[in-house]
Amino acid sequence: MPNFRLMRIVHPHPHDAVRSTVHWTPGCFVCGRENTAGLQAVVVTDGTAAYLRVTLADRFVGIPGSLHGGVIAAALDEAMWYAAYRYGIPSVTGSLEIRFVRPGVPGKPLLAVAWVETKERPAAGQQGIPDSGRIGRAVARLLDVEGRIVAAARGRFVRVPVPDAVHRVLRSEPAAPDVLDDIARWPGLDALRGRITGGP
User: Fold this and answer.
1) How far is CA 158 from the centre of its chain?
2) Of 9, 64, 171, 191, which is most buried, counting CB atoms within 10 Å of its CB?
3) CB within 8 Å of 184: residues ≥ 6 apart
4) Rounded distance, CA 189 to CA 60, Å?
């Protein structure tokens, strides 16, 4: 497995970072490095999509041998959130739809790929709220180490005003070459490239 060595250059806002960037929030259940009870996923964004790489332990199973669906949903939601946030648009999840295709196996690497598919006008009743409104639909696929789809997701993410204090909690840094190489070589990713768009 690759060595996830990371170069420590912290940016207060993700759109100030380099093109291929690792993101995390220290206490986050999904991406928090310091949260030892969480998933400790590695999240990378580039010019087209967000990628979330994770290997989940046995404590995240539902039935023996299969990862809990809620944990899979959390990983997909996180990947889609970062796909939206890479534009510098903070948001909250408005809705989330998951289609489970096959069981996720604990101890086996997984890769979520997410991108923003459409951007919409502010939702009814939000036009008068500064920096608020629906930003549209994001989609994601979770691939196993053989490139097979474990789950697919669609979500709608609503832009909300976020205080500067929240931006200061979010961290980003340039992605190390071995991290990018691992993602680029992931089985099944080439089949998705035609669907991934550069944004709304």
Assistant:
1) 16
2) 171
3) none
4) 25
